[in-house]
Amino acid sequence: MGNNMQFLLSGLSIGGVYALVALGFSMMWSVARAANFTHGDIFMLGGVLTVAMFAAGLPLWAAAPLALVIAMVAAAAIERFLVRPFNKEANAIGWMLTTIAIGVMIESFATATYGPLPRPLPSPLAAEPIFVAGAGVFPQELLLPAVAVLAMLALYVFQRYTRTGQAIRAVATNRVAAGLMGIDADRITMFVFAAAGGLGALAGLLIAPVIQATTTMGLLIGLKSFMIAIISGITNPAGVVAVAIAFGVAERFIEGYLSTSARDAFGFTLMILVLLAFPQGIFGRKEVSKV
Amino acid sequence: MIQTLRPRGLGALMLGAALATAATAPAQAQSAEPCIGASWELTGALAHTGLQIRYAVEVALDEINEAGGILGQQVTLRAYDDQGEPARAVDNAFRIGEQDNCVIMIGGFRTPNAIALREPLDEMGLPWMGVISAGTRVIEHETGENNWMFRVSMKDRWVAPFLVEHAMARAPEGRIGLLYEATGWGQGAVPDVEAAMAEQGMELVASETFNIGDTDMTAQLSRMRDAGVEAIVFYGVDREADGVLRSMQRIGFRPEIVSAWGIGGQLGNTAGALADGVLVAGTFSWWGELEPRAQAVLDAMVERFGLAGPQDLLLPSGTANAYDAIHIIAAALEIAGEFDREKLREALFEVSHEGIVANFDPAFERTMERHDAITPDAYRLLAFHEGILLPIEQTPFGDASN
After folding, report:
1. 3-state class (DSSP) for residue B61
2. Cα A93 to the center of its chain, rounded Å
3. Residue of chain A with shortest Cα separation from B244
4. Within chain A, which residues score under 70 in pLDDT?
5. For residues B242 and B267, is the Cβ–Cβ distance under 8 A?
6. Mind giving me the DSSP string for B105-148?
7. Architecture of A2-277 per CATH?
8. What pLDDT digit, counting tens, does each position of A170-206 carry?
9. End-to-end distance of chain A based on CA atoms, in angstroms?
């Protein structure tokens, strides 16, 4: 029981990270039918920028929001200059190349300036664990799934009850028709990329006190989160969050009952099998286009 | 006419054949340049490791060159980045051996990179000097023959009994677990640790791995706790060690940790008080009262590279090993009498040198096992205390009962 609870709590934590990052992928895909493959690096920037600015003397209450703003501006700029020009035609894939390339550049630049070594980010919520049914967890870790669920609910409310949110839904449903209705689809897309970047950076910021902030922390998280978004049906935010948290928990149980080396092998195999069974993703709907 | 041409033609043919033979003769027969090549990790996740070696190598070369150089020539360093990848290390080796024609090559941090160099070095006849990568197979090749690879560093086959001995001293019931990174270095240490345990008449009660980049080792540690592990022998580096300590804190399980020297000073910077009491095998510490020569080396590194002090020497043993390695190479070249790789190799078996890590007398012997200059009697146990990696004698953890 103790170990199972331990695996569950640890899984919720990493699942929360996957959920926030995957939610960003979902938002971006919905409006642009493209993804920002630097999203893992944007996640990294959330942690690394906060640590760097905190080390430079800014108080944490200023460093953290400033890091999020910088990450959001970076994500918006990536959309404007590296996705939009390469996503003008149907089935365009140039944005893949450009975002992967800029991701490598961001990581290299961050390593050259921030340094290759991990650095701690102090947080009172990561100082001492609390114990639940004999299993330990840092309160900071429990923030992650909670924030992921809140972000998903906030997104739902925003899209349902605000004009900008309704514009996002319109662009996601039919970009051309939305444009004909007077919606600036490009501006909406850039806004969504910025918001997605903010969520990714928030995940990096929240996990940094537990795992240390390092310039390489985003690579695997970004990759796994994208795959999670795909298998859950990328345009369904609630499905993405649910699958991401479930995947994080599954990883910890695989580690616990099999081995660490089995974690990624089984995890990726599981993803492939799910995709075979649900080609549109678990919560995805088949897209119908009238011709 | 034909008679006079025939011998000339034959002579020309023989001359051509001789020139062709000379051109294809092994590189070791050629004179080399007064340069020391290096393939280090200068970018990437462990970029600090290359820098930590470079501090000592450049200071040692400064000393040598200011004193007139080697054989009257100034010696240069040609350092290339391998990003921690074996394939790039091989590329760098060929660049150093063939393009730069350096007399010797210095190794970096990672064991897999060093292992990847075995055949290229043989092919080029290029001596190689490791200063960190401690994998046993770097020096003790399965073929039973190692002509070109030498090391001024620790050796896992010798480190394992050292770690096990100190772990046993801290485990009342002898319940030792092994926790290691799933790399060539970590996996290569498993048979060494198992053999060391067998020598003690014991077996490991748990053996667990983790991947590079892992931060949550809760599952592995839960199993070790359930197996009743009292002391962990650890093979990994600072970043993952930090994850281990955080995971231990999370589940309230803190056995003794006796680590191979993948852990350096950085763990104290990230884990702080959590690292207190973690024991690390090493060859040198720059903290505390140093011998005058070592103090002068530290001062030179601080001045030249703007270091704050020993706290910036994150791989204290590797840095010290690198310093001694350069002086051993210089002494051997003086014995060799010229910049020639073959002669340098032979001279390495003749050189003795009083270093800051140990008295190397002789540095190397003509057995594969003793292509390692640092023998176990020079191994030291270091311990984290208040975030600093100190000689264990300078900490409260010197007594095993503590």
Report:
1. helix
2. 21
3. A211
4. 1-2, 286-291
5. yes
6. EE--S-HHHHHHTHHHHHHHT--EEESS---HHHHS-TTS--SS
7. Orthogonal Bundle (1.10)
8. 999 888 899 898 999 999 999 999 999 999 999 999 9
9. 56
- pTM equals 0.84
**DSSP assignment letter at A130:** E
Cβ-in-10-Å burial (0-12, 13-18, 19+) of B41 comes to: buried
Identity at A275, one-letter amino acid code: L
Residues in chain B whose Cβ is within 8 Å of chain A: 43-48, 182, 208-211, 213-216, 218-220, 222-223, 226, 238-239, 242-243, 246, 249-252, 266, 269-272, 314
Instruction: Count other C-beta atoms under 10 Å from residue A276's C-beta.
Output: 8
B270 → closest Cβ in A120, A128, A131: A120
**Which structural domains are found in chain B, ordered by start?**
31-154+290-375 (3.40.50.2300), 157-260 (3.40.50.2300)
Q: How confident is the model at residue B201 (pLDDT cuts 50, 70, 90)?
A: very high
**DSSP assignment of A184-224:** -HHHHHHHHHHHHHHHHHHHHHHHHHHH-B-TTTTHHHHHH
Tokens 């020598």 found at: B199
Cα A16-A17-A21 angle, rounded to 5 deg:
115
Q: Show Cβ contacts of residue B358 under 8 Å, excluding neighbours closer than 6 positions.
A: B283, B324, B373, B374, B375, B378
Inter-residue contact B331 to B353 (CB < 8 Å): yes
Token pair 């514009």: residue = A167
CB contact under 8 A, A116 and B44: yes
Is the pLDDT score of B14 beyond 70?
no
Q: In chain A, how long is the greatest CA-to-CA distance?
A: 60
In this complex, the residue of B211, B222, B252 whose CB is nearest that of residue A3 is: B222
CA A133 to chain B, closest CA, distance in angstroms equals 11
pLDDT tens, B84-100? 899 999 999 999 999 99
